[in-house]
């Protein structure tokens, strides 16, 4: 079952509200399952399994690995309500960003389809065939859809490479705008999971490994797992994470301050908020610029099509005059 951002926002917000009122998690999800939307369907799938294993329950409900890691960190430290609130806020911002981007993209998409219809009329008139009109419309829109699909595919490939390859991760980070988007998202997830689970019974080591997996960054994950081994061998927290140079200098400094002051939870929680805000700013910038870029691409495609049409008309007139 595919859950939208808005579905997850409602699910986690409602769960947090009921947990805050003292309702047990399973009972809370049973309440949610009475609805008719996708959040209710997720609750119906998850509720029967929650007392067996939280991860299995969330997986049955259609939630991502990141969602499961964050809630597992919250459960481990007794802060599952806080974890739900963080996820509700996260998905609320993503849902708003998607709505803004879609709304702002309607005009260039309308222009694209209008141009496809209008610019296909002259070739159809010249050829005297309605099938020519249909062919022109399909080819014009097909070219536009292929271009859009190409950009989506590239973004998907980058996301997968960022998660699976340390070399690709480091390379993607150097790409302007795109690299910052992926990096800030990864560090926001890392700091959030670490801050949620750090006061649990298993402490730093368990939370650090989980935070690395939740980051969806190959470099951060590798650095976290290596740091777990180093800390078990007697190394310091900050030094173990700094070895790989996978974290920004300001965050490495924060690790050192947290370890020296004995305020690890407080400092990591602070940086979780900082990177969350940075990521939200990246999302806002993306939703602002994406429709503008789409509009410019549509204009470029329309201009190209117009020149192609002028060439066709000119060629047709030349043929008539020669006859």
Supply the number of structural domains: 2
Give the termini separation: 64 Å
Low-pLDDT windows of residues: none
Number of DSSP strand runs: 0
H and E string: HHHHHHHHHHHHHHH
General form: globular
Radius of gyration: 26 Å
Helix share of residues?
over 70%
How many helical elements?
15
Major beta-sheet overview: none
Q: What structural class is derived from the secondary structure elements?
A: mainly alpha
Mean pLDDT, nearest integer?
86
Proportion in β-strands: under 5%
Give the topology, please.
Elements (H helix, E strand, L loop, with lengths): L4 H16 L4 H8 L5 H9 L7 H7 L4 H13 L2 H39 L2 H7 L2 H35 L1 H8 L4 H20 L5 H13 L2 H15 L4 H6 L6 H13 L2 H59 L1
Key descriptive features of the protein:
single chain; 323 residues; 2 domains; Receptor-associated Protein; 15 helices; mainly alpha
Summarize the structure.
This protein has 15 helices and no strands. It has 323 residues and is mainly α.
How would you portray this structure in words?
There is one protein chain. With 323 residues, this protein is mostly helical. The protein has two domains: 5-90, Receptor-associated Protein, CATH 1.20.81; 92-323, no CATH class. It is built from 15 helices and no strands. Helix 1 (5-20) packs antiparallel against helix 6 (80-118) and helix 6 runs antiparallel to helix 8 (130-164).
